[in-house]
Amino acid sequence: MKVKYIGKSDPMALINGKVYEVASVETEWYRIIDETGEDYLYPPDNFEIVTNKI
Prior knowledge:
Helices cover 0% and strands 48% of the residues. It is mainly β. The protein has a five-stranded antiparallel sheet, with no helix packed on it. β3 and β4 (39-42) form a beta hairpin. The termini are close together.
């Protein structure tokens, strides 16, 4: 699934308007590889779904 971040930009985390690939969904949060290159869980309220295709 691809999602677009709609929160405040942070160059060390997520960039507003950038599309990210969701690696997995865990307890309804999205595991995303952010700008640091590490994967973290983020709340889905901060994203718009671009595509549900895996």
